[in-house]
Amino acid sequence: MAMLSALTFFSNYTIQQNISLVNTKATKNHEPRTLPKSSRTDKYNRQSIDVNVSDARKNHLLTESLISYVNYGDMDNALYLFEGMSKSDTFVWNVLIRGLTDNGFFREAVDLYYRMCFSGVRADKFTFPFVIKACGELCDLREGEKVHAKVYKVGLDFDVYICNALICMYAKVGDIECAERVFSKMQRRDLVSWNSMISAYAIIGDGWSSLLCIKKMQSVGIGHDKFTVLSSLKACSLLCSLIIGKEIHGQVIKSTFRSDVVVQTSLIDMYGKCGQVQYAQNLFNWIPQMSVITWNAMIGCYALNLHPLESFTCIRNMQASGLVHPDKITLINLLPSCAQVGALIPAKSIHGFAVRREFLPHLVLETTLVDMYGKLQELRLAKQVFDQMNMKNLISWNAIIAAYVQNGQSRQALKLFSDLINNHCVPDASTISSILPAYSDIASLREGKQIHGYNIKKEFSANNFITNSIIYMYARCGDLLIAQQIFDRMYNKDVISWNTIIMAYGIHGFGKESLKLFCRMRENDIEPNASTFISVLSSCSIAGLDEEGWKYFHLMKWEYGIDPQIEHYGSMLDLLGRKGDLEKAKKFIDEMSLPPTARIWGSLLSASRQHGNIELAEVAANHILSSAHDNTGCYILLSNMYAKAGRWEDVERIKGLMSEKGLAKTTGCSDIEINYKTIRFVNHDRSHLKTDKIYDVLAILLRWIGEELFVGLSKFNPVDLVRTRLNSPKCHSIRLAISYGLISVSVGKPIVIKKNVRICSDCHDAAKKISDITNREIVVGDSKIYHHFKDGKCSCKDYW
DNA sequence: ATAGGGTTAG
Q1: Residues 299-358 of A with CB under 7 A from strand B
Q2: Cβ neighbours for A231, distance < 8 A, ≥ 6 positions apart
Q3: In this predicted model, what pLDDT tens digit does every residue of A200-245 receive, in sequence order?
Q4: How would you class A628 by CB atoms within 10 Å of its CB: exposed for 0-12, middle for 13-18, buried for 19 or more?
């Protein structure tokens, strides 16, 4: 008896002493944890227990103590106690495995189960649910299957509790077929079994199956409870089905759990996901008591529905309430709002808050930070967070790749993409849709085909977004024919597919084809949107279809009620510029309903260059240079105009301005792909193995087209001649590539060349003539459009 | 004496 009181005292003592070391909050739904290696001290002197107490009695008392520790979440001491006990009793093992699972020590729970097996202690129907749950939490399908096999072997595969646990486990690892198989083989199903299956469909994102399962459950006469409601609300969120959501809300109001905070939170979440901020807010305002999760759901609702300021107000109110504190998920939900308002300083302070609160490292939070910095155009910070992550998954990789693509770093994005594959990650549809624009940008047909092949293998072609991107990619890589074929084979073309194919023909200068496609699109009852008209109008402007361009510009407004955006205005301005009426063009800019952007001034600059109006070019250039836009091209264009006019002081002035801003002239180069290899030429390149032959061909070509390779122009004075010769267009990369193409590409096939900057007018002229005298089609993709040179003409009709 | 299903996240 004395010993008993000693034990009681001891228990109380340790529990009180340990209270700060122990998890006193809810003991469920932890993130996975690991036990510290023997952090326990020896101040708990348990040896005193053994005197005068029978073994059975002793074990009983120890077990009670063990349960106390487990229920307090003090697994460290629970394990210590366990090691000192007789381990023949299944019950003790079960208590400890439950404790580990409940407290988030999933790997340890599974390990302890194996130790139990090896110790020869039989696992019973109580053991398996905990172990199976731990496997599910670990997302370890192989481990889960092993335990399932054992369940089957010991004949417990008809136990309702175990089967229910198996359904949940299979759902968590994403194996819905296995979950369904367990469910269908059950001889007896209770409400929990049905709820588990309903929730399983919701977990894998199959809202319809989830709702259908509820119907089926009702048809066999089983009523619902709040767990059913929670899953059904999740299904509504997945389906964005406000109608069903409201119906369930109605049922909730009539039910006994209408004031349950979990159900209320779920309703707020559902309204948020269905885009109904007002409904969510009304609920939130009247909710009797809120948990941190309720606040998080409301903040997430605002962020999701692009109400960034409200989400900031919400977190301020949350902190002012003093009842709950922001947690990791609060920040995860809040961060997109920073990107939405372009607010770097709040973003950084939230990041700092996370660091101070020791929320990091945390996979999801870090990934959100990467995503947000990417959207705020802070690539350096995005990369910094990404590099510091000690755990990365596919979603984090997708975030950093998207950040690079969105910020125009296509080459680097592709490098990361190959890093991801070398890291044994398997890209998903999201990775592919992020990376495809980068492939379009680098416009390498060889690499483009590789990624296309990968998509076919992975069966991503069912995804419209991806297929549309692939169509665009082929067009940008110069292979309009494949683009067309893929488009033709799509069986569910959406408006974006049509916009893409119209644009594809547009950038290749086949404006008439674009307009035919627009008509076909209308015949197919696809309603055009603003982007459709960007495709149509830019096709018209690239091909110089003046009359048609204006017709569609007016049609867009008056028949389809679409107000012109800056891109639409830009295309119309290109058409005006082409005609050379620069005054009219200037007037058009003044009369636009939108403030002009760099795109608009760029258009005016091109027109001024084409018609040799330096004064207007300077006006346009000054506007571009005063914006934060990347304006390297603008400097170069202006500098070339000055050079052409012999204004060398101004050329030097521009050069000075560029070096002041740290801008370097982009080295122009021309790529040609021969036999799955990309050959790159720069101006005056002599690095190719066949250099002598290439220059021989070039010399012949130039003689044919009436230029001489080694004779300078005579209309400049000697000093200018030297300057001019330094950058003589006669040996520009494009001509070297054409010469090489003529001796490498089989006769009859077009010579396709990609250029990283716009083609100069001398080379444009030369290419036309070469196409004529050699009777070859030459296709040159520059940084904006494709030029198809054939029979001495170019598809751009000499305006670009 | 120990069981199973639940709300917010990139």
Answers
A1: 300, 327-330, 332-333, 336
A2: A195, A198, A199, A201, A202, A210, A214
A3: 999 999 999 999 999 999 999 898 999 999 999 999 999 999 999 9
A4: exposed
**H-helix or E-strand containing A567?**
helix A566-579
Give the distance, in angstroms, between the CA of residue A690 and the centroid of all CA atoms in the same chain.
44
CA distance A505 to A221: 60
pLDDT tops 60 at residue A26: no
Higher local confidence (pLDDT), A73 or A125: A125
A159 CB contact with strand B at below 7 Å: yes
**Rounded distance in angstroms from the CA atom of residue A68 to the C1' atom of nucleotide B1:** 12
Nucleotide B3's nearest residue (CA vs C1') is A126
Helix extents (H) in A661-757: 691-704, 718-726, 733-744
* Chain segment A252-287, per-residue pLDDT in tens: 999 888 889 999 999 999 999 999 999 999 999 998
Max avg pLDDT among A31-40, A407-416, A650-659: A407-416
Whether the CB of A157 is less than 7 Å away from nucleic strand B comes out as no
Which residues of A in 118-137 have their CB below 7 Å from strand B's atoms? 124-126, 129-130, 133
Distance A262 CA to B6 C1' (A): 7
Q: Is the dihedral of CA A385, A386, A387, A392 positive or negative?
A: positive
Across the range A126-136, mean pLDDT stands at 95
Integer distance in angstroms from CA A432 to C1' B4? 39
> Which residues in range 257-276 of chain A are in contact with strand B, contact meaning CB within 7 A of any of its atoms?
260-263, 265-266, 269
CA-to-CA distance for A487 and A443, rounded, in angstroms? 19
Q: How far apart are CA A522 and CA A518, in angstroms?
A: 6
With a cut of 50, say whether residue A17 has pLDDT above it: no
Torsion sign (Cα): A604, A610, A611, A612 = positive
Cβ of A721: how many Cβ atoms within 10 Å? 15
3-state secondary structure A497-565: HHHHHHHHHHHCCCHHHHHHHHHHHHHCCCCCCHHHHHHHHHHHHHHCCHHHHHHHHHHHHHCCCCCCC
Name the residue closest to the C1' of B2 by its CA: A95
Q: Which nucleotide is nearest to A94 (CA to C1')?
A: B2
**Between the CA of residue A726 and those of A597, A723, A735, A756, what are the distances in Å?**
34, 5, 16, 20
Whether A513 CB is under 7 Å from strand B: no
Q: For residue A199, which amino acid is it?
A: S
| Nearest one of A36, A170, A39, A35 to A105, comparing CA atoms | A35
Strand B nucleotides in reach of protein CB atoms, 7 A cut-off: 1-10
Q: CA A771: distance to chain centroid?
A: 43
- How confident is the model over A368-386, as a mean pLDDT? 94
A228 touches strand B (CB under 7 A): yes
Nucleic strand B within 7 A of Cβ A399: yes
The answer to whether some atom of strand B lies closer than 7 Å to the beta carbon of A464 is no
CB A298 within 8 A of CB A279: no
pTM for the structure as a whole: 0.80
Residue A708's CB is within 10 A of a number of other CB atoms, namely: 10
| Contact between residue A575 and residue A541 where contact means Cβ atoms under 8 Å apart | yes
How far is A66 from A7, CA to CA, in rounded Å? 12
Contacts of A568 (CB under 8 A, 6+ apart): A530, A533, A534, A537, A553, A556
Separation of CA A265 and C1' B4 in angstroms?
23
CA distances from A38 to A35, A79, A102, A368 (A): 8, 10, 20, 35
Number of H helices, E strands in chain A: 41, 6
Q: What is the 8-class DSSP label of residue A707?
A: -
Tell the residue number behind the tokens 């960007």, with chain if given. Answer: A534
